[in-house]
């Protein structure tokens, strides 16, 4: 029997907006276009269309992989250009091995599987985490742009693999953007999004509402 997925909370930083995963693609794209018109009235029609298509293409790919949360970030780069990123969360059952061993072991496995990627281990607020950054080709149906042939675009994907502290699950936090040239400007937003992930409810929740297996962790932290 598959292990039941543990609870997960995420606090989105400014600029990130959660997406209704049950909405029709056309409705999502229309809302995105309206948001772009409001936030970036100076952007040209082709630029706005490209952002809307990039968002929906990334979203569909994440949904196929079983995302439990999706949010989009629309921002203005230092040169004034509108830029878009997608943030997704997945919760996957996985045997974690010996305590503390998962991040380093998985980083080594990813380094072997993705030799072109930048792979490492980071100490984050949510815990020790394996991280991989790589560029991926993504096909876009030509019908989206009203042309007969499909095209291929390149996106940069950053994946954080976070072992759950008391359940045999891994949380994969994935940030994707097509605007690779603005990568350095995206890094603070990516860090803020991942820092908002928590395995514990907001602090105003009563201790009695927590699963018993979490009580000892809280007592150790606060005495």
Outline the structure in words.
The protein is 32% helix and 31% strand. It is built from five helices and nine strands, in the order ββααββαββββαβα. The strands form two sheets. It has a seven-stranded antiparallel sheet, sandwiched between helices. Strands 1-9 form a two-stranded antiparallel sheet. Helix 1 (25-39) packs across helix 2.
Mean pLDDT across all residues, rounded? 80
Distance between the termini: 37 Å
Taken from the alpha-carbon principal axes, the silhouette is: globular
| Sheet with the most strands, sense and barrel status | 7 strands, antiparallel
How big a fraction of the residues is strand? Answer: 25-35%
Structural class: alpha+beta
In what order do the strands lie side by side in the largest sheet? 2-3-4-8-7-6-5
Number of strands: 9
- Strand and helix order: EEHHEEHEEEEHEH
Gyration radius, in Å: 19 Å
Number of helices: 5
| Helix share, percent | 25-40%
Low-confidence stretches: 214-223
In short:
The protein has 223 residues and is an alpha+beta fold. The chain has 5 helices and 9 strands, in the order ββααββαββββαβα.
List the topology elements.
Elements (H helix, E strand, L loop, with lengths): L8 E2 L5 E3 L6 H15 L5 H20 L4 E8 L5 E12 L8 H12 L4 E7 L2 E14 L10 E13 L5 E9 L5 H13 L1 E2 L13 H11 L1
Antiparallel strand pairs: 1-9, 2-3, 3-4, 4-8, 5-6, 6-7, 7-8
Helix pairs in contact: 1-2
